Amino acid sequence: MSQSAQKAVTQTFLRRYVNKETMKYMLTTHFWGPVSNFGIPLAAIYDLKKDPERISGPMTTALILYSGVFMKFALTVQPKNYLLFGCHVVNSLAQTGQAFRYVNYHFLGGQEAKAKEEAALIPVAKEE
After folding, report:
1. How far, in Å, CA of 34 to CA of 48, rounded?
2. Is the pLDDT of residue 110 over 90?
3. Rounded to a whole number, what is the distance in angstroms from the first to the last CA of the chain?
4. CA geometry: angle at 32 spanning 30 and 36, to 5°?
């Protein structure tokens, strides 16, 4: 790409994304609220690899409901806050994954399967 073409692309990008309106948006809670809220779904995604015994069913249910309420809120406020909506969609999906793991472990035999797996790994001492 020629130097003049690079300059044109750079200027177009700057005009489109680095302007007064974008900067004004970036300094509001309409932006920083959802950005900081993304910690919740990121933690849930990270926890998908952890032991299902540690999942709290009531808390997972509360977080799914919380995300549902805030998805509705994000589309009700003016202007619509699509960043907040996306944050809570991701959180709802991650928490639903945790809920499936919780139900599988506590009610569908996951706990027994884990106990059998652990028993198979521990050698039994023979009595002589």
Report:
1. 22
2. no
3. 81
4. 130
